[in-house]
Design a protein that fits this description.
Layout: H1 2-17, H2 24-47, H3 50-89
Helix pairs in contact: 1-2, 2-3
Amino acid sequence: MIKTTVAAILSLSLACAGCAGMTDTQQRTLSGAAIGTAAGGVIGAISGNTGMGLAIGAAAGAGSGYLYGKHKETEQAAYQKGYQDAQKAK
């Protein structure tokens, strides 16, 4: 269990260090995976299968972060289109 926890912390540290050249959606996906991994590790440790908890948490977090990032991209695109349409109407 200690090895798995150390591996999770190391993975989170490395993941956060590499965010500089990423798009917002990529950063949100990675952040979601990191948060999900942490939550999954805790839940897995409580339930007795830390590795499975880490894997499920990372997958769920990455999926959630990706979907949220795509939602924000769509929202921004709609805002930009509305802004451009308003500028044309002047």
